Amino acid sequence: MVCKSSDRGLWVMGVKPESGREVLLRSYLETGGYNCCLGQLDDLAESRPLGIVLDISPFSDDGWGLLLKIKENPATRNIPVLPIFLSESGAVGGVFPVAGFFTLPLDETHLLDRLAIYGLTEEAETWDLEALIVSRNGEEKLAKTVEKIGFEAVMAYNGKEALALTSIKPKYLAFCAMMLADMSAFEFLEKLRLYPYSGNMPVFVLLKSEMKDGEKTAMSRDIAHLVRKKELSCEEFLSHLRRRD
């Protein structure tokens, strides 16, 4: 079912209508108590759904392009997006639950507003808290922004360095470029989740303002090796969402 402007449930995006690839995913979402439909970008700003489940696999309908357009548009960038990997037949192969996305160049006001809404700035001036920034470019503006609200900015230039720094001293939150020299942000997130001291750390992903087709293809292929050969069960998928009984 294609979304109407009045549909306020979860929108499934990155899947072509009539392809049938969304059938299993929709059944999982409906089991979890969610109303869902296939959404189109042109209707998103007016409808403002509860959230978006976005296919970013190599079989998606420009999932990466959709993600960037959603997050660079002030009218839609605050809508939560859950990236997933759907196989060519529609099996749910992976879920990548990041805390949120920010586009570069950084909109400082938007970043500070979102961190405040998430409740992540309340203790920054009271306690000695560190914000980890993982990017080969350093992201000096981001570092200065988080320091303004009381965090100590700790820089890492690849995933291995970031994991080492986190093992020495737990960080309060992290910002990570989508693609690092040695791994993707999603692989970094999965490695963090293996350790109890970083398992609940919020990780925000930084998106480039432009993505070439080759970059999109490379990112889709990069996350493919994170996906299990066996598809996720309904229960496993819903563990990443709040059930609506």
From TrEMBL:
Keyword Phosphoprotein (UniProt): yes
Source superkingdom: Bacteria
Name this polypeptide is given: Response regulator
UniProt KW keywords: Phosphoprotein
